[in-house]
Fold these 2 entries.
Entry 1:
Amino acid sequence: MFFVRQMFGQAQRRAFSVSARQSSKVAVLGAAGGIGQPLSLLLKLNPRVSQLALYDIRLAPGVAADLSHINTKSVVKGYDPTPSGLRECLTGSEIILIPAGVPRKPGMTRDDLFNTNASIVRDLAKAAADAAPDANVLVIANPVNSTVPICAEVYKSKGVYNPKRLFGVTTLDVVRSSRFISEIKGTDPADENVTVVGGHSGVTIVPLISQSRHPDISGAQLDALVNRIQFGGDEVVKAKDGAGSATLSMAMAGARFAESLLKAAQGEKGVIEPTFVDSPLYKDQGVEFFASRVELGPEGAHNIYPVGKINKYEEGLLEACLGDLKKNIQKGIDFVKANP
Ligand code: NAI
């Protein structure tokens, strides 16, 4: 409860004034999954959400019936796994979250998920582009470095691509970073803010410790921290021993990102989240998408910040990131070209 209060306490008080004039429909695709269920729960507790639309290939009406008994104002509806069910779920949505797809098992990289998740995300993106072309699309399904370009290609092919409305959710890397750095320094993670740029897998995850409150972390301690942030997901995959990857921490991160977008859409200024977007920062090096700090606004991505001042160590991390990222992005683009 403390956590929910921490996340939504302030928002709740403010939302009494906003909810009267703004109603926000949020759709979750893959709502019955490990991430989908707790994510939907957190969205049901968010007073900025007026309608919660849940879709999955199984069990979405059940999850919706369960959540609908919670005594918050929003209306929850689960949709049948049919094309018309999906269309109805998406129509009128302001935000569409996509945690649909298979998670990792021990020993797998996020890229190993490509073959299954690429077509799932492509098909959901097609439906979203048709039913709600102006919605903000938040891609959680991995590999994010490739699934975001897949969405972009689908939207482009339908002539409705708006780069400001497509986001790869990298919030969990930021959440983990502040937690891990607080464990080293014995601080409150709520006071720690680590910018993470690049992509969302392995070496494409680039935490900028020099810009944090603790630029003094160096040597083996820095190596270990960076490695833990880059491969933090593996700790969960290993501990769950074949039963999946991060779901609860991811649900929290996804709900935080959705909340930030809703705040920005409802007029709050200065809302900044690192996220993986169509970005001008490294396009000259052939990298079309890149995660950096992005100020959110009513139009989606309002302002994309450059990475800022980084040190030699981080330059090395960034170089390794860009090489991998370019390949991951191209893989997504090629997939849609070959499998439209
Ligand atoms: P899960 O297997 O528990 O749930 C996935 C859900 O998607 C299932 O309920 C399944 O029925 C549904 N689904 C499958 N195909 C669908 C379709 N065509 N339409 C609608 N729903 C469909 O998996 P989990 O743990 O929830 O993970 C979901 C995805 O999120 C994975 O790809 C995982 O790698 C990714 N993930 C992303 C993170 C990030 O930081 N961006 C962090 C953790 C996981």
Entry 2:
Amino acid sequence: MRIAKDHCFRPSRAYVGVGSNLGDRMSYLAKAARCLVDTAGVKAIQSAPIYETRPVGPAGPDNFLNTVFALDVCLSPLQLLRILHDIEVLMGRPLAPPRGGVGSRTGARTLDLDILFFDDLVFQNDELTVPHPHLHHREFVLRPLNDLDPEFSHPELGLTVRELLAALPPSEQILGVFAEAVTFAHT
Ligand code: ADP
Ligand code: MG
């Protein structure tokens, strides 16, 4: 029996939060999608609609474009994190992380790619915390996540994405939604 080298029997489902508030924001989202399509180990990819959102805190003059990608991957969580980091750097993001560590959402950035969930994994080390520790407070994450998979259950909180979104206090963070999701075609 021959097994293809990159075959894996059950890919993992990762949800990746995507944000940009600097430069040609839409093009950074599209380029990130294309980089992921071209990445060995990424088997399938889908995008939620794109939302325009107000920055939280001192995050620069421009609003964010935010969405979520659903990825089917034959990769470990840390492999995926490093791939996302390489794509951020390729898009011109400075190497140094903003002050405040994970979840700070401070500073303007061409592209921010965060692992929100990785299957139902609960994991923490110096590089990676999964589920993302702030996702359940953030409408700009929960809304696109809810478009993709409202019944996905947060492995620590035991609530679905739909329930987490319903539990958020009213905010004026979301300014609008684009009719088109990110496309993955090569230009
Ligand atoms: P932000 O929290 O605003 O997204 P960064 O993107 O600069 O800030 O992330 C800072 C650090 O957070 C990265 O160096 C990365 O190693 C770490 N990190 C921890 N957990 C995660 C996660 N779930 N997704 C992405 N990065 C994470
Ligand atoms: Mg990040």
